[in-house]
Fold:
Amino acid sequence: MTDGDLVPRLPDHAVETITAFLRSHCLYHGNEGAVLGLSGGVDSALVARLARDALGAEKILGISMPDTAYPRDLARETDQYAHALGIEYRTVGIEKIESAYRTTLPDVKDRVTVGNTKARIRMTVLYALARDRRRVVLGTGNKSELLLGYFTKHGDGGVDLLPIGDLYKTEVWELSAQLNLPRAVRERAPSAGLWEGQTDEEELGLAYRELDRILYGLERGLAEEEIAARTRQPIERVRQYAQRVVAYRHKRRSAPIPKIGARTVGVDWDP
Structure:
């Protein structure tokens, strides 16, 4: 094995698998389509495209949920992208809701806490509109974010389906290029948009192209020392991200329940 093979490679069957997944979950059991948030980033743009192709434009509702810091140019670009896809599109500003939270809890000023509140407001909007239309909520989280816990619990992590949840960020970029998504979307610095100037890679401390190699090594069960050698990353850094994957697993699981009865929901009873 060489250093070069420790890189996630987009499987040939990815689009086919995601298409079948979306059709099986979004058009059965009374469901009539899907709703998703459009942020202007590559993840949401890719999910919107995949959902449109799988289900048909008439069954997709894309929602932009800007706050006061959301750039107007990005809003126009997102609007243009949704119209190019041919899907239904709606803008729901969250400024007033966010302001109400700040007024109600004036002592809550921590930047991350306030940012998480924005994410939870947005998810509340998505579910309100999804229920009204008998649709499911599509999340836009990718595998890198899920493993690193880089999402808001009960915010962008609180969804019905995660169509690209088994694609690393680098695979998201690869598939977006294959599908010819707009260059501006593909090349924009990844950001959760929780505060002005925020970027994923600055917060995570390493570029996704390097992070994904570490995570891919962990997925393949390689020892941390081997991952460090093959990625040319310090062993301390590899251990840091390996520990983070474990530390944030609570975000990827349902709330724990103490075992008391004969059968317990989520433990040994899934009716």
Observations:
- The chain has twelve helices and four strands.
- The chain has a mean pLDDT of 93.
